[in-house]
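# nightly structure sweep
# worker-07 picked up a monomer target from the shared queue
# config: single-sequence mode, recycle default, output format = structure tokens
# input follows
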Amino acid sequence: MSKASEIEGGRDFGLVVAGYGRHYVVETPEGRRVICHPRGKKSACVVGDRLHWQPAGDEGVIEHIEPRRNLLFRQDEWKTKAFAANLDQILVMVASQPVFSESQLTRALIAAESAGIAARVLLNKADLPQIVEARERLRSYARMGYEVVEIALKARTEEARAQVGPMLSGKTTLVLGPSGACKSTLINLLAPDAKAQVGEISQALNSGKHTTTSTQWYWLDAQRTTGLIDSPGFQEFGLRQVTAQDLPNLMPDFREHIAQCRFYNCTHQHEPGCGVRTALKRGEISESRHRIYGEILQELSQTRW
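# output follows
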């Protein structure tokens, strides 16, 4: 029995597999896809939601969203942007070339920690000379417990499939990553009918618009037990959902040393007797991680109107 069937179990239940504005593509337990709309003006659905819906002609009306296990989102001072709900893990994809932003990586991992979602780092283009520097930049992440997997999607395709496939099996995984990391290559490798799935949605919407810039769920197996969610790229990753006080606890390398701080409200910036800064001097926390922490702390410490 598929994961979808186990959860929904009836004709009026469904799984949100794509969203375009106020149009949501809802998949029934039998695998049929229906365009659904929320009641009223408020639109609160995200990909990965389980919900109840009622038929309305050829489309449907969303009646009720089931409680979520988790929700990954980013939030700045102006708006909140949800990625997906009910995730088993996130896969943050970076590459040796172009050089990835460690700040964006850190922010994605903090958001995952805040939401209680496991995370892995996928480092692509391991065949290029720049892999040496990229590997060194990720060494501290591996040391703090994140699994860092090196692949070469285009140069060693079958090897990459063998590496990544088992990590995703039986799980719902969201892939995050900047342009240039080859997310689309990964999707097309693991979901051979990805274009067909997107085309199916375009046909259902009677439009091809926005299908490459919206969050999309792909089944990787015929039994529909393994889901891979692709997300649009982003330039900024706000963390306003996190408090300045909670921030250090969401960074494993900081969390390990907080108990050694002399002051309970230590900001790990300038206080004497700071366990985090002592670990920084010993090389147990990287200079870049401490700098990124300071930048995020400053953002979160600003007055919220």
